[in-house]
Amino acid sequence: MHKQTLTDIVAGLRSKAFSSEEITRHYLDRIAKLDDTYNSFITVTAEQALNQARMADEQLANGEQAPLCGVPIAHKDIFCTTGVRTSCASRMLDNFIAPYDATVVENFNAAGTVMLGKTNMDEFAMGSSNETSWYGPVKNPWNTGCVPGGSSGGSAAAVAARLAPGATATDTGGSIRQPASLCGLTGLKPTYGRVSRFGMIAFASSLDQGGTLTQTAEDSALMLQVMAGFDPKDSTCVDKAVPDYCATLNDSLEGLTIGIPREYFSEGLNPDAETAVRNALAELEKLGATLKEITLPHTGLAVPAYYVIAPAECSANLSRFDGVRFGHRCEEPKDLEDMYKRSRAEGFGDEVKRRILVGTYCLSAGFYDAYYRKAQQVRQLIKQDFVEAFSEVDVIMGPTTTAPAFEFGAKGDDPVAMYLEDIYTISTNLAGLPGLSAPCGFVDNKPVGLQMIGNYFAEAKLLNIAHRFQQATDWHQQLPAVVANGTEG
Ligand code: GLN
What we know:
Elements: H1 6-14, H2 20-38, E1 41-44, H3 46-61, E2 72-76, H4 103-110, E3 114-119, H5 153-160, E4 166-171, H6 177-183, E5 186-189, E6 209-214, H7 217-227, E7 257-261, H8 271-286, E8 290-294, H9 302-317, H10 336-347, H11 350-363, H12 368-389, E9 395-399, H13 415-419, H14 426-431, E10 435-443, E11 446-454, H15 459-472, H16 481-484
Parallel strand pairs: 2-3, 7-8, 7-9
Antiparallel strand pairs: 1-3, 4-6, 5-6, 5-10, 9-11, 10-11
The structure holds glutamine.
């Protein structure tokens, strides 16, 4: 039952092949049996899920047409959910029960989905390996000695292990696409402003964007259809009509020009991962696309610019967690200052503290011009590279990551090595463009992804290309051996 895609589940519910309660129970049982191994959920909302499922079954019986009525999914624990702990994987918010739903969650509720629970992540979405979570690391279902990627590692592992058919996620510098690549999934980060950030706990507000982790591009289209759209509660959300993402999935790729940035095939890229990506590009040529070498000359500046801008914004966003308005409060503070200091010292983990320190430094008087303003100028140059590239090509492609999943601890002592994990994904966020990662092969029995970067609001085009690629290949249908032969747990 769990080998079905989200699209299969929608069809199965409509044809009454199974009920929402049955399929929901099936996933809850799998989570109960297997998630001790993966640690992909922080909170499982079993009782609430079964209630939602029974309601969905009644609605389905009455001919209700909410698009995803009765379909179980999981939400990254960065999205506020009424009455359910929303921790952002931080000790700081271990006790936080959100009093309202994020707009994304509200949209899914209105579409009839059933929430299985809240998925694990890097603390406050800072990381690329899911090793910074207060609730412990998440294991990659393809190889439990390796990380699932991050920060949306819990959502990725849950879908890869088929503990959920699809999940929400967020991407500030690569947090959807990198775990998608490392876990063999389709991950979509939409254009900045396409999906509301209201109720999505802020890390770096000018970069954060909600998106999807699914088995297929078709499933991603179904989820994005529900998530996307204007929200008056988020002033950065764009008021632009949402196209029918499923309607164009099968469009021909004849005449498509794919830009291949020279800088994305540089030194440091694993040669076998490169071969997988080049084979995928050859497959797209067979489907009618033309490849064209391009250059994105400022690519090398993306990681340094990001690691000024993201920490700067995070230092401002995380100042609200002071033990008074939100979050963990230390025991028996001596005075106000002691309370602030100890609450924040106890509530935040090392990586979060490192970012707050770097960000506060970059924003302080005397350094602002040298670091923050300079980084914003570099950001403009990176954006300009893409604008120029898109005057010649329809889409840009390359690897999502330099290599497949790495072992636990491999980059833990070296923040810079960890930061370089996102070398191919970060520019997209700095420019605000949409990006998608689709499985395109294996290296050492671990999945790797093909990244596609689209022009602004070209999500439908990315989903169309990924869908056509998935019609022609079967990388996305591969399952971790234990899931395929049912010997997990
Ligand atoms: N790995 C990057 C970071 O740690 C990106 C994280 C993200 O996209 N949320 O900042």
